[in-house]
Write a structure and sequence with these properties.
The protein is an alpha+beta fold. It has two domains: 265 residues, Immunoglobulin-like, CATH 2.60.40; 320 residues, Glycosidases (TIM Barrel, Alpha-Beta Barrel). Helices cover 20% and strands 29% of the residues. The chain has twelve helices and 46 strands. The strands form eleven sheets. A 13-stranded antiparallel sheet has the order 13-15-16-19-4-3-2-1-11-12-18-17-14. A six-stranded parallel sheet has the order 28-22-21-20-33-32. A six-stranded antiparallel sheet has the order 34-35-36-41-38-39, covered by helices on one side. A hairpin with a 5-residue loop joins strand 38 and strand 39. Helix 7 runs parallel beside helix 8 and helix 10 runs parallel beside helix 11. The protein starts with 8 loop residues before the first helix and ends with a strand.
Length: 751
C-alpha cells in the first residue's frame, strides 16, 4: 500500500475509516446478566447491573416531553462537562413513576408505552400500549466467547486495554431499519454494517464513507434510537447476525435516546423536536444554482452569466469555489479576497446583482500557516487547534493528505468563534448572498481543543459546531429565517441549519442512484434543503452515458435544492441543444413550484418532517412501499420516479393507495399496483395524488428577489383532503381555505 511520507499507517487508519466487527473471538466481553439494585436521584432512575466478570455497571433512565427517554449505560463516573449533554439542556426531566417487584422493573410513559427491565436474565423491553413488544435486547443463545450469546444484550467489549459499551436488540422477522444519516448504500439498512465517523471520502461516494452520517435509526415497529455522542459508533444491522441490531460506542458510556410513537413520521418529528428544526428558508435558495471547479477570474464568471442571458436560462446563484481567495496554496480559507482576479469585491457583488443573481462563496474552517497578517493574528491570539504538547495540530484533506502547513480554527474557543464569524459577516455585509461550508470533517486526532476535548473524540462534534456557527453568522446579518448555508458535512442537529448537498459524486448512473439513497436516508434526520451536484462532480472517463446529464438534470430539478457543479463545466449550454432544452424546461418548472416548496417548508418548521420523503414515511403499512428506494415523495402531494439507467425510456412504477395522475399526459393510475410507464428523454415521471392542491407561480419569468406580486395558481386533482394550505413567498402570507376554493383570488387548474 502506498502511503505519503508524512503519514503512518496508524494515522491513515484514523482518516480512512474502516468498520471493525463488534463481536469477535479476539476480544473479551463483559455482559449484563442481572439487575442488583436501583434508586432515584434528581428525577433519574439508576439501576445497577451485574456483569459476567462480577463487576457492576449502571443504567441511568431519564424521561422527557414527547415521550422521549434516555438510557445511559456506564461503569465509570460520567463526565460532568460532556459535550453532547447539551442535547437536553432546554428540556426538563419528568418525574419517574415505576413499579418494582421480584421479576421486573416497569416504567410507564404518558402515551402508555412501557419500559420493562427483566431482573434475573437481564432484558430491556419497550412495549406499546396494546402490550406488543416494539423491541427488546437480544437473548439469542450462541457461543462461549460471547458469554453464551450470539449477540450479547448489553455490556462492554475489552480490546487493547480499552472498554467499549455496546447494546444488541432483537429484530423481528418483518422489521425494517432505516437511518444512519447520509450513507451511500442501501436505503433499507437491514444487512448493513456501518461506522459513524464522518470523513472527506475523496470523491468516492459509493459506500459507507460519508460526510454526514448520524447515529440514528428508525424501525417499522415504530421505535427510534439516537446514540447521543460525538464519538465514533459502529453499527451491525442484521449483519453478521441476521436477527439483531448491535451498536458499539467509542465513548466510555452509551447514551441511548429513544423515540416511540405510531409511525416513523412521528418519530422524525420527535427527533427534530429534541435536536432542532429549521426556522425558514430564503426564497432564492430554492432557485437554480450554478457552480464550477473553477471560475478562475471575473472574466470566466461573467462569460457564464452572459451565456445564461444568451440562452434565456434562469440562474439565481453563482458559486465561487476557492479561486475567490488569494495567497492560498493549501486547502484552507484565509478570507483574503482575490481582487487581482475578480476586481473590487463590492463592485463584483453589485454587478452580479444587476443580473438578478447572487454570489455564494466556498469556505472552510481551516487556516494556512504562512507569513500573512491573518495567520499572525490567529497565532498570537491562540485561535488555532493545538496538540497536547502545545504544538500546532494539523488537518486532513481527503483520506490521504495530511496538511502540515495548515490547521483548524478552534471552534470550542469563544473568542476564536467571534473572530471567525466576523470574517463571514464582513463578506455578507459587503453584498455576499450565501456561503458554502465545505470540509470541517478531519481535525487532527491528537488535537487538544480549548474545551478540553481530544480531536479523535470530537471529530463529529466539530462538524456540528462548524455548521452552527456558519449559520449563526448569516442569521446575525440577514435575520431569522433568512439564512442558508450550503453545507457538505453534517451530524446530530445540523438539520436545523438549512442547506445540504450530498458531496462529491462521480458521473455515472450508479452514483446517481446512490445519491438518491443518501438523500432518502438523510431526510429521516429532518434534512429539508437537500440536493446533489447535478451532472456529477468528478468525471469517470470510462463511463459514456449519453442520457446521464439529462436524467440527472431532471432529478436535480425535482429536489428541494438544485445546483449544477463539477470538476469542469457543468453549465447546461455546454451539453448540446437537447440537454440544454431539457435542463431549461425543468429549471423553469422548479422555480414555478417554489410556492409548493414553501408550503412543505411551513410543515417542516412546525413538525420537523422533511420535504423529500421516502415512500415509507407516508405509506408505512404498505409492505411494498417500505422497500421502495428508487422513487420518492415531495410532501404528500407529489411522487417522483426518476430514470436511473442509460438509454431507458420506460420503467416500472409502484403506486401506493389512492389515485395518481401523470402530469405529462394526465393519465390516471390506480394505487396498490405496479405499472410500466413510458418516459421519453424529455420527460420525467412526476405524479400528483388524488386530493392534492399544488400551489405554483403562474408565470415562467421570475425574479426571486421580489416575489410579492407574482400571481399564484393552484393545480387541483380531485377533492382536496386538506382543510387549508399555508405558505409565505416574498413577504406575503398565503392561508388558503381549500374547502372554499374559488377562482377570484387564485387561478385554479383542474387536473
Amino acid at each position: 500500500m502506498s502511503i505519503k511520507n508524512n503519514i503512518t499507517r496508524e494515522m491513515y487508519k484514523y482518516s480512512c475509516v474502516e468498520k471493525e466487527k463488534i463481536f469477535t473471538a479476539d476480544a473479551d466481553y463483559f455482559v449484563a446478566l442481572k439487575t442488583s439494585d436501583l434508586w432515584l436521584d434528581d428525577n433519574n432512575l439508576f439501576i445497577e447491573v451485574t456483569l459476567s466478570n462480577i463487576q457492576k455497571a449502571y443504567l441511568k433512565i431519564s424521561l422527557y416531553d414527547e415521550d422521549i427517554f434516555s438510557i445511559n449505560f456506564f461503569q465509570k463516573q460520567l463526565n460532568k462537562n460532556r459535550y453532547f449533554d447539551k442535547t437536553f439542556l432546554k428540556f426538563n426531566k419528568l418525574k419517574i413513576d415505576y413499579e418494582n417487584n421480584s421479576e421486573k422493573i416497569l416504567i410507564t410513559l404518558k402515551n402508555k408505552t412501557k419500559i420493562e427491565i427483566i431482573k434475573k436474565q437481564f432484558c430491556l423491553k419497550i412495549i406499546d400500549k396494546q402490550g406488543n413488544i416494539k423491541t427488546q435486547t437480544s437473548l439469542r443463545a450462541g457461543w462461549d466467547h460471547l458469554e453464551g450469546f450470539a449477540s450479547p444484550p448489553l455490556g462492554f467489549k475489552e480490546a487493547n486495554n480499552d472498554f467499549f459499551p455496546f447494546v444488541s436488540f432483537q429484530l423481528d422477522s418483518e422489521e425494517l431499519i432505516y437511518g444512519l444519516g447520509e450513507k451511500f448504500n442501501n436505503f433499507v439498512k437491514n444487512g448493513t454494517q456501518s461506522v459513524i465517523y464522518n470523513v472527506d471520502n475523496a470523491a468516492t461516494s459509493n459506500g459507507d464513507l460519508a460526510y454526514a452520517g448520524v447515529p440514528l435509526v428508525y424501525s417499522t415497529n415504530n421505535w427510534g434510537m439516537l446514540i447521543n455522542t460525538g464519538h465514533k459508533t459502529e453499527w451491525e444491522i442484521g449483519s453478521p447476525i441476521t436477527e439483531t441490531l448491535s451498536v458499539l460506542s467509542h465513548e466510555q458510556n452509551l447514551e441511548m435516546v429513544f423515540f416511540v410513537g405510531d409511525s416513523i413520521k412521528e418519530l422524525i418529528s420527535k427527533y427534530t423536536f429534541l435536536t432542532g428544526r429549521i426556522k425558514g428558508v430564503p426564497d432564492d435558495a430554492y432557485g437554480i444554482w450554478i457552480n464550477r471547479l473553477y471560475y478562475h477570474n471575473k472574466e470566466e464568471l461573467f462569460t457564464e452569466i452572459k451565456n445564461a442571458k444568451k440562452f434565456n436560462y434562469p440562474v439565481d446563484v453563482f458559486t465561487l469555489d476557492p479561486k475567490w481567495l488569494k495567497n492560498r496554496f493549501t486547502k484552507t480559507c484565509n478570507f483574503e479576497f482575490n481582487d487581482e482576479a475578480f476586481g473590487e469585491i463590492e463592485t463584483l457583488f453589485k454587478e452580479v446583482k444587476k443580473q438578478n443573481s447572487k454570489l455564494c462563496f466556498w469556505i472552510n474552517p481551516y487556516l494556512q500557516i504562512d507569513n500573512s497578517e491573518t495567520w499572525k493574528e490567529v497565532f498570537e491570539n491562540n485561535y488555532y487547534t493545538k496538540k497536547k504538547d502545545g504544538s500546532i495540530a494539523h488537518i486532513w484533506c481527503g483520506l490521504n493528505f495530511y496538511q502540515e502547513t495548515a490547521t483548524a480554527v478552534d471552534l470550542t474557543n469563544p473568542k476564536a468563534v467571534i473572530w471567525w464569524k466576523n470574517k463571514i459577516k464582513n463578506l455578507l455585509k459587503k453584498g455576499l448572498g450565501f456561503i458554502k461550508p465545505d470540509y470541517g470533517d478531519s481535525i487532527d486526532a491528537d488535537a487538544l481543543l480549548w474545551n478540553g476535548e481530544i480531536g479523535k473524540d470530537f471529530r463529529n462534534s466539530y462538524i456540528e459546531l462548524y455548521i452552527k456557527y456558519s449559520y449563526e453568522a448569516m442569521e446575525e446579518v440577514f435575520g431569522k429565517s433568512k439564512a442558508f448555508v450550503l453545507s457538505r458535512p453534517g451530524y446530530i442537529g445540523t438539520q436545523q441549519y438549512p442547506g445540504k448537498w450530498a458531496g462529491d459524486s462521480a458521473t455515472s448512473f450508479n452514483e446517481l442512484k446512490m445519491q438518491l439513497w443518501s438523500g432518502l436516508s438523510n431526510s429521516l434526520c429532518g434534512t429539508v434543503m437537500w440536493g446533489t451536484d447535478i451532472g456529477g462532480f468528478s468525471t469517470l472517463e470510462h463511463m459514456n452515458h449519453i442520457d446521464l446529464y439529462a436524467r440527472w438534470s431532471q432529478f436535480g430539478m425535482m429536489t428541494p435544492f438544485s445546483r449544477y457543479h463539477g470538476f469542469g463545466a457543468r453549465e447546461p449550454w455546454y451539453y448540446g441543444e437537447r440537454d440544454l432544452n431539457i435542463s431549461k424546461k425543468f429549471a423553469v418548472q422548479k422555480r414555478k413550484l417554489i410556492p409548493f416548496y414553501k408550503m412543505c417548508e411551513y410543515e417542516a418548521i412546525k413538525t420537523g418532517v422533511p420535504i423529500l420523503r421516502p415512500l415509507v414515511l407516508e405509506y408505512q403499512d404498505d409492505f411494498i412501499a417500505r422497500k421502495i428506494d428508487d422513487q420518492y415523495l415531495l410532501g404528500q402531494e407529489i411522487m417522483v420516479a426518476p430514470i436511473l439507467s442509460d438509454k431507458k425510456y420506460n420503467r416500472q412504477v409502484y403506486f401506493p393507495k389512492g389515485k395518481w395522475i401523470n402530469i405529462n399526459n394526465k393519465q390516471i393510475f390506480e394505487g396498490n399496483r405496479i405499472y410500466d410507464v413510458a418516459c421519453p428523454i424529455d420527460e420525467m415521471l412526476i405524479f400528483i395524488k388524488d386530493g392534492s392542491v399544488v400551489p405554483m407561480f403562474k408565470n415562467d419569468e421570475l425574479n426571486l428577489s421580489d416575489l410579492n406580486h407574482q400571481q399564484i395558481k393552484l393545480l387541483k386533482f380531485g377533492e382536496p383532503t386538506k382543510k387549508n394550505i399555508i405558505f409565505m413567498v416574498g413577504e406575503k402570507n398565503h392561508n388558503i381555505d381549500l374547502k372554499k376554493l374559488d377562482d377570484k383570488t387564485y387561478e385554479i387548474e383542474v387536473m
